Amino acid sequence: MRFLFAARLLTVLGLWLVMSSAWGQKTAPRSAYQQFAMQTRLDKPVSTTCFARLDNTNFYSLPAPEAFLKARNARTAAPQSSTFIVTYNGFPDNARAAFQLAVDIWQSVIKSPIPIRMTANWTNLGSPSRNRVTLGQASPSDYYRLYGPTQKTDAFYPIALAEKIARRELNGTAPDIGASFNSQVNWYLGTDGKPGPTQLDFVTVVLHEIGHGLGFVSGRSVGNNNTASIFTFVFDAFVENGQGQKLINETIFPDNSAALYNQFVGDNLFFNGPILQQKTGQKARLYAPSTFQPGSSTSHLDERTYPDGSINELMTPEASNGVANFNPGPLTLAMFEDMEWKTTSIIHETPLRDSEEVTDRTLTFDVFSDTTLVANSVRLFIGRGAATANVASYSAVTPTLIPGTTNRYSFTIPASQATGRIGYYFQVQDASGRTFTSPGKLSSTGQQFIYGATLGPDNVPPTIAQLGLRTNGLFTSPTATTVAGTNNYYVFTSTDTLNVSAIIRDDRLTGVDTAYVEYQINGVNQTPAPMRYTEQIRELTDGQALVDSVYMARLRFPAGSLTAGSRIQYRVVAIDSARARNRVVFPAQGFYDIAVVAPQATARTSYSTSFADPVASAADFVTNGFTVGQPSGFQSPMLQSEHPYRNGNTYDFENNTSAVLLAPIRLKANPDSATIRFSEIALIEPGETGTRYGDPGFFDYVIVEGSKDGGRTWQPMIEGYDARDNNDWNRTWNNSLSGVSPDINSSAPGTPTLFKQREIRMLETGLFRPNDVVLIRFRLYADQLSYGWGWAIDNLQIQVPPPPPILATEPTRSVQFTVYPNPSSNGSIRVEAKLARAATEAGLTVTSPMGQTLRTIALPVRGTTINEPIDLTQLPTGLYLLQLKVGDTTETKKIMITR
């Protein structure tokens, strides 16, 4: 199982994406500022690396854009449209003038009311080779996702652009762009655009790197197994292939997929936006070579389409010696406008908040534009009640321009209409035909986000979900079908703490006031354990995600307070902050039960069971999510997981079910004797190809573990494994798949023919030694996505010698016994026997080489002759033993089934 990259998770506060799950997603109060702009950061911002060819013979110079040239003319200069503040580290004085020229060019073509702070490092990035050299690298220092003024609400914006749109500092005086330049390059540091034939023009390279820092960068990433992901930057919202398919469309290009990877190496990617089409009449071809270049692919224009001398070649991946280019190019500048470097910001700093007060509600907002707005185009759209789920039904009203201002508007919703669910958004149009909204829209579909609140009396209690229990470092999620009074977990008498977690949310942002765990021990009420609000980090296979509204409590058990046979009962209670103090209890009636167990008093040197007597076998085990019973399609009981097994339903996307043998085993000194043998079927979700236990792409698994301290801590006796451990299991899993990636489940059932033998040498890992007394645990781990039939274990033998080999033929004069065909290609055979004297009946037993009885068949005898067809087609390929018993006489034959 895998989980989508963290960028796919929308944490919406103070506004809703219009869908059924939009209501009640938060419980912790937030400030108005936090509602205005919530941040998600990258731990390691994507960086681009740029190179140069040193064999160029086509020397040329391209002048700066007209806007820059006008700005230098004192008579035509317009006010400076943006300001860069550069901090130099290690820079020689003679390089600063060239750097400043590049800064001045960008200052003339982009607009921002917020200073753009940049750190520039002069450092060794490697010496030139004969034809190639690394010039520099740059990236935004942070990416922000803003809920409100940005038009791609789910996309991440480079910090300088996010501050421009928000019209305020978001990171204080910290740098917005970080860049490094190679001190080992033969730079031309002049500002006249005339580098020598062997020199690289520094102004050109700085201009290019600042372009990356301002947002010319893709959030794509590629794995080691030719799969890819996108952490959606605003740049990526406009990337599509030649067929017009957006790469952020997960229906076509799932995250972590080969399909997405193939787009990145298919030489068929384009940036396509409305301003780009309006101003240039074309899409911009991106650099997507057949071999993925981590620092270059997708984050540059295509080198072949925009070669040396092209007005658009600045943002291609390679610079050239003897060339000066002071112009970002019309394609790049239009792309920047599409990414909202030319935009209209609708700033709504005080969205409606949930409240029980019934009063007039005034909505106030500001409109700032880099362009000309259509007169009287400012609109407010409002939906009420059930209609908030359908923005097409919203009513449009015209806000009032507040007297004495040029850009501040307001609208008052009267108290009579300001009750129940309220959803709203703002809209304005500019002269170019663009429509801007606040909040913005979903990048992939254009679905409108809304601000929202629930007003008036609150009579709805909180909701409790994803209940989890954690002890000994493992999460278990009690089954959703468990009823109160049914044991769904166990702890050992040595347990001193039990952590209880749940995701508790209220339908309003006023939130949950109180949550706690009520519990009893043997019917005696204990002091309730308070649950505290936390935000947890969920570890994913390719990143991390923040999970809010996780309430956690710790139940403490003093030494000696838990005895074998004790019973812990618990339930979760939550009360919201409403005047009515709405209360919810989980489960709704009664309590969940936890069994307290202890190992058996006497250690054994061996243990074996065929599980033929489910009651007797179950007495030796304590289980959670396992039972001793007979699965559908089988002829005898066994130890089994649930079918299908449950996936992870705790906040950490984890679920562990297990069965512990309560009979302690004293390990033998002989490694060949200290073994566990059993027959098993493990239809467990396969991990990614090539992954092993412990790797990020190794998903669900089963494992056998041992404890030397009475169940407090556990260590592996074998590495975890899944259906890939056996070809028959893996083939069966893949034969019956359903669902949509990455949540693809297998409905293939286990059958007797899938049983395989497992032998575990308990001393082999070095974690266990001769004479250790250990408990043995069978555990199934599942994460949050795919699931299948599960695990079954039969004929368990611990430190039991294997049965002696049975001779293929034991000579006897009383029976002549023949089996044919042998080998059998399909399992259909015939048994013939000639008896020395007449008999009325005979018996045929089919066993495995390990002595496991598979079938017992009664054969008719006609006088002294047996001649019967036998159907063994359900058995898999392998060697089997047939024992014919007539009276006191036994004859044995080997039979080989081949396919």
UniProtKB/TrEMBL annotation:
Residues 819-897 form the Secretion system C-terminal sorting domain. It comes from the Bacteria. Pfam families: Por_Secre_tail (PF18962). One of its GO terms (molecular function) is metallopeptidase activity. NCBIfam families: Por_Secre_tail. This is T9SS type A sorting domain-containing protein.
